Amino acid sequence: MPRLFILTLSLLPWIPVVPCWVTTQNEVSVLEGGSITVPCRYDPKYANHVKYWCRGSMREFCTSLARTDETSSTNPSKDKVSIFDDPAQEMFTVTMNNLKETESGWYLCGVELGNGWKADDVAYTKVKVIHGMSVENSMVSGEEGSSVTVQCLYSERFRESEKKWCRSGDWSSCLSTGSEGSYEDTSVAISDDRTGTFTVTLKKLQMRDAGWYLCSAGQQQVAVQVQVTPRASTKPVTSPPPPSQSAVYLPPPKPITKESWSSHRYMLESVAVCSSLLLLVGLAVLARKLWILHKEDSELRHFKEMKERFSDNPSGMGDLQHVPIAFHNKATMDVRAY
Question: Is-contact 79 96, C-beta < 8 A?
Answer without folding.
Answer: no
